[in-house]
Amino acid sequence: MERSRVSLVTVLCVLFSRISGAEVEMRVTPGDDVTLYCDCVWRSGFSIVWFRNPSHEHQPPFIMSAADLVRGDFPDYTAQWNPSNQTYDLVVKNVSESDLGLYCCAVREEKITEDETRGGVWKDVYHYGSKSTRLSFLGRTDLSGL
Fold first, then answer.
1. Which of 95, 96, 99, 126 could form a disulfide with 106 if both were Cys (CB 3.0 to 4.6 A apart)?
2. Considering the entire predicted model, what is its pTM?
3. Kind of pairing, strands 46-54 and 101-115?
């Protein structure tokens, strides 16, 4: 389990270094409920996922699938179906400091790939949107890039 967690963190760090496109800053006050809009279109056989790279170094990046959110696996987050864009937007409820960071959505495709030592292996392939959203508090300057 720990090995897969380390692999996920590594993949997410690489992911956030490769995302290109617009970064939108959403400045909120503690306790607000906010909706982050996804620009990826859901298709049958694929799933919408949300990535979060936190502003705080002591929090690991993580990934949330729309199915996780609908099941309630993340109590402060919900997936909201957006029929006009055919996607799941992310609702962050009662925003706290631990929710701050960079968010982006992607469409996840599960593929079977051939591995010389293990045969067929399931692999997640992500198709990213063209924007990411940085969630931060009003009146606070982010010094993480200094």
1. 126
2. 0.76
3. antiparallel
